[in-house]
Design a protein that fits this description.
The complex is a heterodimer of chains A (143) and B (146). Chain A has 143 residues and is of the alpha+beta class. Chain A has a single domain (2-133), classed as 6-pyruvoyl tetrahydropterin synthase/QueD (Tetrahydropterin Synthase, Chain A), CATH 3.30.479.10. Chain A has four helices and five strands. Chain A has a five-stranded mixed β-sheet with strand order 3-1-2-4-5. The longest helix of chain A has 16 residues, at 63-78. Chain A is elongated and about 60 Å long. Chain A starts with a strand and ends in a 9-residue tail after the last strand. The relative contact order of chain A is 0.20. With 146 residues, chain B is an alpha+beta fold. Chain B has four helices and five strands; from the N terminus they run βαβαβααββ. Chain B has helices spanning 28-35, 68-83, 88-91, 102-113; strands spanning 5-19, 44-55, 86-87, 120-129, 132-136. Chain B is elongated, with a radius of gyration of 17 Å. The chains are: A alpha+beta (143), B alpha+beta (146). Strand 5 of chain A pairs antiparallel with strand 1 (5-19) of chain B, so a sheet runs across the interface.
Chain lengths: 143, 146
């Protein structure tokens, strides 16, 4: 099995607020991320697909196709958007790296039909990221 | 669907420290041959990058596996306070006997972090330079299978 990774970047805003918490609790738990006017990040998304290279083309999947899937499924939904208000699938969830990575997995998994989705890694900053992968698979080995 | 998925949180920290690779079990010549420049008696230093990976349930109320403030203060207390701007050989008791290679550093850091109470420590990765990095996952076989 070969793993193939493509990276894209998008810029988006968000804020953390749970309406079931008091104002003070929201501030204590979420800190600066609770600013009611939101804030933003340059997110980096690494999408890893697993599969056997096709004997004729030598490819796990055509990178052009993966690029189009990422443009359609991720960039159009999330780039230069407010994640709390403009991504319906995140409604009612706190848009943390963990939750965004899971929603991205759910967008991509059914669309990748050559090979299969192995891992989604979403960086909110160079020092903070979340990985989403199939239970029992491995997320190790990729710096 | 969600039960079939695993989510990990990754966080990177930086510390600068010096070390010298030298084994009391080897002769001067052997130390020099095995460790090369790293055996320089006065030591040398690196800007280390520590990557900590945690897994667990994403709390629906907070969207988080673990609160970053909790993780940051734990790593600060357990690792960074003892390692940052220190000599690993002189200042960290574990390396009075063991050679402070990054392999041994990984094991020492994993042992110091595995008691994090809020989530499961999956593995750590330590980058010694931009070209060298090491991973350790303790008993989490093959890195992070579960």
């Amino acid at each position: 099995m070969v793993l193939l990774t493509r990276k894209i970047e998008f810029a988006a805003s968000h804020l953390y607020n749970n309406p079931n918490f008091s104002v003070e609790e929201n501030r204590r738990i979420f800190g600066k991320c609770n600013n009611p006017h939101g804030h933003g990040h340059n997110y980096t998304l690494e999408v890893t697909v697993e599969g056997e290279p096709d004997p004729v083309t030598g490819m796990v999947l055509d990178l052009k196709e993966l690029k189009e899937i990422l443009e359609r499924e991720i960039m159009q939904r999330m780039d230069h958007r407010h994640l709390n208000y403009e991504v319906a699938e995140l409604a009612g969830q706190i848009p943390t790296c963990e939750n965004i990575a899971r929603v991205i997995w759910q967008f991509l998994e059914p669309k990748i039909t050559q090979g299969r989705l192995h891992r989604v890694r979403l960086y909110e900053s160079p020092d903070l990221f979340a990985d989403c992968y199939r239970n029992g698979a491995s997320a190790a080995g990729k710096p | 669907m969600n039960g079939a998925l695993k989510i990990e949180l990754g966080r990177r920290y930086r510390f600068s420290a010096s070390h010298r690779l030298h084994s009391a079990h080897l002769s001067e010549e052997e130390n020099c041959r095995v460790f090369g420049k790293c055996n320089n008696p006065y030591g040398h230093g690196h800007n280390y990058v520590l990557e900590v990976s945690l897994s667990g349930e994403v709390d629906p109320a907070t969207g988080m596996i673990a609160n970053l403030a909790d993780l940051d203060s734990f790593v600060e207390r357990q690792v960074l306070e003892d390692f940052d701007h220190k000599s690993l050989n002189e200042d960290v008791p574990a390396f009075r006997e063991k050679v402070p290679t990054t392999e041994n550093l990984c094991i020492e850091i994993f042992e110091r972090l595995k008691s994090f109470p809020k989530a499961k420590l999956e593995r750590i990765r330590v980058q010694e330079t931009g070209n060298n990095s090491f991973e350790y996952a303790g008993d989490n076989l093959e890195g992070n299978h579960s």
